[in-house]
Design brief:
single chain, 375 residues, alpha/beta, Rossmann fold, 2 domains, 38% helix, 19% strand
Length: 375
């Protein structure tokens, strides 16, 4: 069984900065505003020859009635359940807060190893202040700085002592699975599709555009199919208002396209294919990705005998010359044809991955050259 460690704590203690340091890349969006991370985010890293999964989570706020903080709380609980070990992060600069106390009380009941990481300890004065966290009574307490990396080696040494060779090898094997990125404009139902496929609330879904910020990697291992799904932030056309969080979300969505083998472009059936959908499609095809177009919210469209056929014809005219791209009409809400979407994506991946021998290629090309001689 693969090994996973969850990084948990109240908002703005440096969980995503630590997550990025472990992965050695800026995968999670980091900002001074609290509540930037919403969904739980996975990454793979290695230390001392051991490979393991790291789960970044949003800031835990108990008893809050805010729509996002309530959903983030559910995501944190799921991450704790999934993880084999927990890094509980606190902030030395602020000291012990009520939110830290609530999190500590919750983790004391956990049967998994908990490592207390006192973050932002980057000078002797902070080191002295950080000693108050020994009051929590956890066996393993470490003073670290996510920004500079000091002290992170000690906590990782302790962490890797829990990981078996079998778990490490299984995590390595997972990185070689096919990757399918779910891309599209905001609010077309990308996260709803991911949740429908998995049969669980994997990502936070709301009517507010821009709910998903980070790229969310999830392994799909059902019905004898095994691959990684990547949920991305909605890519909308540039606007005059400069929103840093949205800018970084879009950068990560485009980076997810680079990482993926096949892109599933989700469009809104009610709005039809817009100029921005065509732009996103062109971007993915320029990157040489396999493509599947999913027309979501098909349940909301008034249908006649040839509605689907006419809609598909119009859609393919807009994305010409790529008229051989599969188009599937789905409803993520009602789970209509979502498994067909998976099967078609796997078929596209198989077609994209196949190798044609030189002799076979010569046979085809020579016949073509004989039929149509070069001038």
């Amino acid at each position: 069984m693969r090994f996973a460690v969850a990084i948990v704590g109240r908002p703005n203690v440096g969980k995503s900065t630590f997550f990025n340091r472990l992965l050695e890349q800026r995968k999670a969006i980091v900002d001074d505003i609290s509540g930037v991370t919403r969904d739980r985010q996975y990454g793979v890293t290695d230390w001392n020859g051991k490979t393991f999964n790291v789960i970044d989570t949003g800031g835990f706020v108990p008893n809050s009635e805010d729509i996002f903080e309530t959903e983030i709380r559910k995501q944190v609980v799921i991450a704790i359940d999934e993880a084999d070990a927990i890094i509980f992060m606190v902030d030395a600069a602020v000291g012990i807060t009520d939110l830290d106390e609530a999190m500590a009380n919750m983790l004391r009941r956990a049967t998994k190893p908990v490592l207390l990481a006192v973050n932002k300890v980057d000078n002797p004065e902070r080191q002295l202040l950080a000693t108050e966290f020994y009051a929590f009574g956890f066996d393993h307490t470490y003073f670290i700085s996510s920004m500079s990396g000091s002290g992170t080696g000690d906590i990782l040494d302790q962490l890797t002592s829990y990981i078996t060779e079998e778990a490490s090898e299984e995590t390595k094997a997972e990185t070689e699975l096919p990757k399918f990125a779910i891309i599209g404009q905001p609010n077309v139902g990308k996260s709803s599709l991911l949740n429908a496929l998995l049969g669980s609330e994997r990502t936070i879904v709301s009517d507010i555009a821009g709910t998903t910020r980070d790229t969310i990697h999830t392994r799909y291992n059902l019905f004898q199919k095994d691959f990684v799904l990547i949920d991305t932030a909605g890519i909308r056309k540039k606007n005059k208002d400069k929103d840093d969080l949205e800018f970084y979300s879009i950068i990560r969505a485009i980076r997810a396209m680079d990482e993926a083998d096949v892109c599933l472009l989700v469009i809104d059936a009610e709005k039809g294919i817009t100029a921005q959908d065509v732009n996103i499609f062109s971007l993915a095809t320029r990157k040489g990705k396999g493509m599947v177009v999913l027309v979501n919210k098909w349940d909301l469209v008034a249908k006649e005998t040839n509605t689907a056929r006419d809609y598909e014809k119009l859609l393919k005219e807009r994305i010409a010359p790529f008229t051989d791209v599969p188009v599937i009409f789905i409803s993520a809400k009602d789970k209509v044809r979502i498994l067909k979407a998976v099967e078609v994506a796997l078929q596209v991946y198989a077609n994209k991955s196949q190798k044609i021998s030189t002799s076979k290629l010569n046979d085809v090309m020579l016949k073509a050259i004989e039929a149509y001689h070069a001038p």
